[in-house]
Every structure is written in structure tokens, then in C-alpha cells.
Amino acid sequence: MPALWIAHVTVTDAEAYGRYAELAGPAIAAHGGKFLARGGRFVQLEGKERPRNVVARFETLEDAVACYHSDAYQAALNHARGASERELMVIETDT
């Protein structure tokens, strides 16, 4: 069953977060992830607003979780720690 990787982000250090983004994209693609949305327009209807929102689709929830725990993604994530406030979740979808 496909899964969506959904991140809500407030960037606090654009330079460091830019390095994260450069490395994270290839790590996500290497695990079959395809971006559906990256920082586009949005309307926050409930909850905490984050100015950057990202959605990627993976073939399975397990693929998305494996990506997160991969050495390549963790190396990218080292640049985001301290450079952003983030929430990240993976959810199965029926489409």
C-alpha cells in the first residue's frame, strides 16, 4: 500500500537547511520517493502553521521508514537539526 511522507517545517538557518535539501532529495529518490509538493502555496485551517510543507509518495510505508533511517538521509538530516523546527510523519494511503 502506498504511503505519504509529510513534513511541516520552519527553517531557522537557511544555509544549513539548504544543504539538507541538497542531500535529502537524492536520498528520498533512492528509496523510490517522489515529491508531490515542496513548499507550495497552502492554507492552514487548523493547528500550528509551518511555512514549508513537503509531501513525498513512496510505494510502501516500509520504504519511507527505511529511507528515513538510511545512512544517506541521516547524513542529510544532520544539516536540518538545529536549522529547523519540523514535524514528520508517514501515513499509508489507499491511492
From TrEMBL:
Domain DUF1330 span(s) in chain numbering: 2-92
Domain of life, per lineage: Bacteria
Gene3D superfamilies referenced in this protein's UniProt entry, alphabetically: 3.30.70.100
InterPro entries given in the database record: Dimeric_a/b-barrel (IPR011008), DUF1330 (IPR010753)
One Pfam assignment: DUF1330
Name of the protein this chain belongs to: DUF1330 domain-containing protein
Organism: Thalassococcus lentus
